[in-house]
Amino acid sequence: MTAKFNPEQYKTTTRQQWEDAAEAWHRWGPTLESWLGTSTERMLEGAGVTEGSRVLDVAAGAGGQSFAAARRVGPKGRVLATDISPTILAYAAKAAAEAGIDNLETQTVDGEELDVAEAGFDAVISRVGLIYFPDQQRALAGMRRALRAGGRISAVVYSTPEKNEFFSIPVGVIRRRAQLPPPLPGQPGPFSLGGPGVIAQAFEQAGFHDVTVETVPAPLRMPTSADCVRFERDSFGALHQMLSGLSEAEREEAWEEIATELGRFESAEGFVGPCEMLVASGTK
Ligand SMILES: C[S@@+](CC[C@H](N)C(=O)[O-])C[C@H]1O[C@@H](n2cnc3c(N)ncnc32)[C@H](O)[C@@H]1O
């Protein structure tokens, strides 16, 4: 029998898993920004972020895309970076201070319960965050409330497992070894918004119009496949959550299988992990 999905318990585990992965996500920042740089630019364009914009970033993590937004809006604009994990946000605040970015604030808040100024933002952005929300409609409703009339939302999510083998292979190996069922439609999961039409439908259901979805190739380039395994092992909190039911030795075996499988994407030119993002945008 399959255990019933418990959204509150899922969220508690998600928060803890990002508390634990916070340092690693911050440490891998340069890799993240070169991997997700194009998607990030497309998201900022899609959200209409420009000089002077007031930007709300939901599930901001260690802040890579928040800093890109802060640089774009300049001294007349501002960015509020929010996340459920206080530890990962502390890395964002510290890095912003070190980089002299003074138009950025942070706020620890659940993205499904956004306690921010109503109609107080010109743009809402979220980079690989929405997939973690058990109630995506609730999150989208809060984001819409935060936007002024005519304000824009844009989010980056993974497309399908077939186009994202750098991640779907580890997910598949762990799911099989830990005997986990795939998430049901509507439940959170890495590829939950990636199917044809899924994120567009979610945005429209939440009341956004002029919805567009752009496909952005985002190959993950690293020196070797072992670097990719280290990156995912260090910082992909979702994988740790899925592994939690296995013993230490079983986890080790799972990572060994993942390393073998990802080896097929390594050549003389280095490792190129297949990855494709969707950038979905809409207007309030
Ligand atoms: C894959 S990371 C992405 C971080 C950042 N946007 C980036 O692209 O580097 C996912 C983030 O979602 C956050 N998150 C997960 N569930 C959340 C929730 N319910 N509310 C707010 N943030 C959440 C995690 O704490 C984590 O920082």
Task: Please sum up the structure shown.
The chain has 284 residues and is of the alpha/beta class. The protein has a single domain (7-160, 184-219, 274-283), classed as Vaccinia Virus protein VP39 (Rossmann fold), CATH 3.40.50.
Descriptive report:
The chain is of the alpha/beta class. The protein has one domain (7-160, 184-219, 274-283): Rossmann fold, CATH 3.40.50.150. The chain contains ten helices and ten strands. A seven-stranded mixed β-sheet has the order 3-2-1-4-5-10-6, sandwiched between helices. Strands 7-9-8 form a three-stranded antiparallel β-sheet. A hairpin with a 2-residue loop joins strand 8 (266-267) and strand 9. The longest helix has 21 residues, at 7-27. The chain starts with 6 loop residues before the first helix and ends with a strand. The structure holds S-adenosylmethionine.
Strand and helix map with partners:
Layout: H1 7-27, H2 29-46, E1 54-58, H3 64-73, E2 78-83, H4 86-98, E3 104-108, E4 121-127, H5 136-146, E5 147-158, H6 165-177, H7 198-205, E6 209-217, E7 220-222, H8 225-235, H9 237-243, H10 248-262, E8 266-267, E9 270-273, E10 276-283
Parallel strand pairs: 1-2, 1-4, 2-3, 4-5
Antiparallel strand pairs: 5-10, 6-10, 7-9, 8-9
The protein binds S-adenosylmethionine (SAM).
